[in-house]
Amino acid sequence: MPVVRFVAVTDAATRSALVVLAFAAACSDSASSPADAASPDDVAVDSSACELPAPAATCDPAAKPLPNPSCLVEEPGTGGCPAGMVRIATFCIDRYEASLDGVSPYWNPGASPPPAKSRANAVPQGYISGRQAAAACTAAGKRLCTDTEWQRACRGPLSTTYPYGNTRMPGVCNDARSKHPAVEYFGTTDPVIYSMLGHPCLSQLPSSLDRTGTNPGCVTAEGVFDMMGNLHEWTSAAAGTFRGGFYVDTMINGNGCLYATTAHDMGHSDYSTGFRCCAD
Ligand SMILES: [Ca+2]
Asked: What's the 26 CA to ligand 1 centre distance in angstroms?
């Protein structure tokens, strides 16, 4: 079976330019550089190779793939924040969309999900409800972000509309899939497909859900990845809100960082719903 290897790089500039994906290449890289050593907040911790399983050629609806190997690790936090997190003014936020160990990211994780992790090159957890997302953050000693925190982190210090600026650039984030995955998978536009959005194969289609941090331009000035697109992200808003759009759409309910879906309560889940955590 082919494998994908990557090198985790924690230097912000290098990370933006270099999320390394090399097929089946022997790996002896060191991600360290003099620049890394100069900054206490930017320390390369994982320069080892990590073999990522290749997706199955066809999706088995009964399978529960576990695509996140144990060699995926959280980078050190910045500004005194916990591992995997970035300091944004008065709070910390996960650098990446959350991933979970021991459960399939393509299935609802159940009422007691494992602790949320913030790791590069992970398949982030979809199919999760707002309540389950909050529980996964709590299990990690974190919490869901407030709407205000989430938007501040996405818009950056200059309060831009998109993580990368004020001009939309389709495809810089994972936001430009031309065909709805349910239309593609079920082969029809009959509205009944929209009652089957928990199907595990939807986010296993080619060119659907991306691993975290693999769109190098989809990052804020403060180093937070994938806030726009890839998966929607639950916030702590009690009535149920998820933000940022997903891999098909980052426009219908607002542009980029302004995107907010409020049509579902905290018990809802589908293939597009993910999260990340905040902390004080
Ligand atoms: Ca996202």
From this structure: 32
What is the pLDDT averaged over residues 163-178?
Answer: 96
Write the CATH number for 201.
Answer: 3.90.1580
- 138/39 same-domain check: no
Distance 121 CA to ligand 1 centre (A): 14
From ligand 1's centre to the CA of 28, what distance in Å? 32
Q: What's the pLDDT tens digit per position in 33-70? A: 333 333 444 444 454 579 999 988 899 999 999 999 99
Give 65-94 pLDDT, tens digit per residue.
999 999 999 999 999 999 999 999 999 999
Read off the pLDDT of residues 97-153 as tens digits, 9 standing for 90 and up.
999 999 999 999 999 999 999 999 999 999 999 999 999 999 999 999 999 999 999
Place of tokens 């995955």: 181
Q: What CA–CA distances, in Å, run from 182 to 49, 64, 207, 242?
A: 35, 19, 13, 20
- Say whether both 258 and 166 belong to one domain: yes
Residues near ion ligand 1 (CB < 5 Å) are 226, 230-231, 244
- Residues 108, 245: one domain? yes
Instruction: Give the sign of the dihedral formed by CA 264, CA 276, CA 220, CA 88.
Output: positive
> Is the domain of 119 the same as that of 182?
yes
Rounded Cα distance between 117 and 99, Å, is 5
Q: Work out how many domains the chain is built from and give that number.
A: 2
97 in a structural domain: yes
Distance CA 70, CA 147 (A): 31
